[in-house]
Amino acid sequence: MTTIPVTTWSLEQTAPTDLLPAAAPEGDVRIVRSEVPSPEFSRFLYASVGGDIRWTDRLGWTYAQWLEHLDRPGVETWVAYDRGTPAGYVELESQDDGVVEIVYFGLLPGFRGRRIGGYLLSYGTARAWDLAERWPGVKPTTRVWLHTCSKDGEHAMANYRRRGFKLFDTKVEEEPEVAAPGPWPGAHPA
């Protein structure tokens, strides 16, 4: 099996004042929390956003695994809609001691490059900082973190930095080279 070197960067914010929000894009872009745990919708978002950048770790999850994950206190999915069409999402997960991870973030290929990503990241990060207000028993957020890697979109790291995230760790590991799973070949012209 062929392997490729993959660099993973971990970034964080340690105070709500670290967030440097992006302006809202022009047009009818709205961000709404998907409050009803829906494995079908979450899998659609995951496969559609990550299909061309090799997100594969959840593709084998069963319906029950998706539901168990989504139905936990402190797990939230925020979806950006452009004129009523899902454009991207951010998934938040409350962890121990007031830490919230931005587990997944991205846009469907047809919505990239339209200034929606910075706005969605800003909004999602703000929701990470106030997550405990929506979840009784979850500790107030003291740190928001995420990771990105060299397989992600070319503008990912710059977007995180512009939103005020600071690098705290870098790792390079060999990973199996896998074909991009889709959503299907040729889904979006390059």
From TrEMBL:
One of its GO terms (molecular function) is acyltransferase activity. Residues 29-190 form the N-acetyltransferase domain. It holds the Pfam family Acetyltransf_1. It is an enzyme of class 2 (transferase). Keywords: Acyltransferase, Transferase. InterPro entries: Acyl_CoA_acyltransferase, GNAT_dom. Its EC number is 2.3.1.-. The keyword Ion transport does not apply. This is GNAT family N-acetyltransferase. It comes from Streptomyces fimbriatus. The lineage of its organism: Bacteria, Bacillati, Actinomycetota, Actinomycetes, Kitasatosporales.
